[in-house]
Specification:
By secondary structure, the protein is α/β, with parallel strands linked by helices. The chain is 42% helix and 13% strand. The protein is built from nine helices and seven strands. Strand 4 and strand 5 form a beta hairpin. The radius of gyration is 16 Å and the shape is globular. The mean pLDDT is 95.
Length: 187
């Protein structure tokens, strides 16, 4: 089923001129292990599955990369500014995942994919990119089933000790109002 969902994800993203423009811009930075994830992908898929012609507005475009040799936060800010200069139509949010383990209290991550696996909800744990030869790629450490089946579950860590963080996000995001077919599971 995963292969089928990936085969569905690819045209949903690659047929969207807005998304492809953002992916090309980010690819031009040539950052290591670099992706765009979270709402950028999740919202698009949910909009598609709900038959929305107009895209749901994004709060930001989450750009992640992994560079353990230079994890200074100032670099993220510089990249935010660089992206904003290249395209001011969105709010860019760049984060080097090589230091995000500190925020979560984890051992150091080894890759962007490992970092994505620790995001709060399973359908949010998806990121896409155009690789160095311009081919579409995706990472989805918890699979694509929940995303395409419109199911919102917390990732493992947010099922127990951090369940309140998940519950607060669900309340604040109010996704059920925007996407009425969602099944949101509360631990």
């Amino acid at each position: 089923m995963e292969d089928l969902y990936f085969q569905n994800l690819k045209p949903i993203v690659t047929s969207d001129a807005f998304m492809m423009e953002k992916l090309r811009i980010v690819a031009s930075l040539k950052l290591p292990d670099c992706w765009i994830g979270a709402g950028f992908v999740r919202n698009k898929v949910w909009d598609f599955l709900h038959g929305y012609e107009k895209p749901t507005e994004l709060n930001d475009v989450d750009v992640i990369f992994f560079d353990s040799k230079n994890s200074d936060m100032k670099r993220d800010w510089e990249l935010d500014a660089k992206l904003l200069a290249m395209d001011s139509t969105v709010n860019w949010s760049v984060k080097n995942q090589a230091r995000m383990h500190l925020k979560q209290g984890h051992k150091p991550y080894k890759s962007s994919e490992e970092a994505v696996s620790y995001w709060v909800e399973t359908p949010t744990c998806v990121a896409v990119r155009l690789n160095e030869v311009g081919e579409f790629e995706a990472i989805y450490p918890h699979g694509l089933n929940d995303l395409f089946e419109l199911k919102v579950y917390p990732t493992k860590e947010f099922q127990s000790e951090k369940a309140s963080v998940y519950k607060k996000r669900i309340e604040e995001k109010n996704w059920g109002k925007t996407w009425h077919k969602l099944q949101i599971f509360i631990p």
